[in-house]
Amino acid sequence: MANKGPSYGMSRDVQSKIEKKYDDELEERLVEWIVAQCGAGVGRPERGRLGFQVWLKNGVVLSELVNSLYPEGSKPVKIPKPPPTMVFKQMEQVAQFLKAAEDYGVVKTDIFQTVDLFEGKDIAAVQRTVMALGSLAVTKNDGHYRGDPSWFMKKAQEYKRDFSDSQLKEGKSVIGLQMGTNKGASQAGMTGYGRPRQIIS
């Protein structure tokens, strides 16, 4: 990875807008959840964007988080002991977390890119991914979520309706009000189309 110098002009504006999306209050909530979910062994980061990035950068904490949402014996991510120190191994660990998060049900648009975390390009995207993972865990309610359920919003769930054949047949003969109504108005007394207007002087 190349070292990047300071950005100027438009790239600086874009980067500052991305950095403004980072939410310090959300960081506190996510740290509380990760510690509650994985145990005190994962430690705590220093406050702020940089501390949060350094804490998650090697991918081990994220991997432990996603593993804790699965039952014993079916953990999706292998966590190396000791934690990886080589850059490409750390990025590989983060990539394994992202794959496991997608398999868990996190939508592709909510998943960050490895460089967003590793180079600190968009830590707010990392927050969004962890937030989406937490929301899914609360929604699934399968007994693996630990922490306060009010920390995350439940995702909308499908409400399946079963209609009988007779109810479906009845629905075919009803004209929905979106299409207008057939009561009240009629075309009685209208002249046929194409005839000239009768002007009587």
UniProtKB/TrEMBL annotation:
A cellular-component GO term for this protein:
cytoplasm
Where in the cell is the protein located? Cytoplasm
Q: What is its main location?
A: cytoplasm
Q: Which family does it belong to?
A: Belongs to the calponin family.
SMART domains, per this entry?
Answer: CH
Q: Which InterPro entries match?
A: Calponin-like, Calponin_repeat, CH_dom, CH_dom_sf, SM22_calponin
Question: Is Metal-binding tagged as a keyword?
Answer: no
Q: From what superkingdom does this record's organism come?
A: Eukaryota
Keywords, ordered alphabetically: Acetylation, Cytoplasm, Muscle protein
PROSITE patterns per the UniProt record, alphabetical: CALPONIN_1, CALPONIN_2, CH
What is this protein called in UniProt? Transgelin
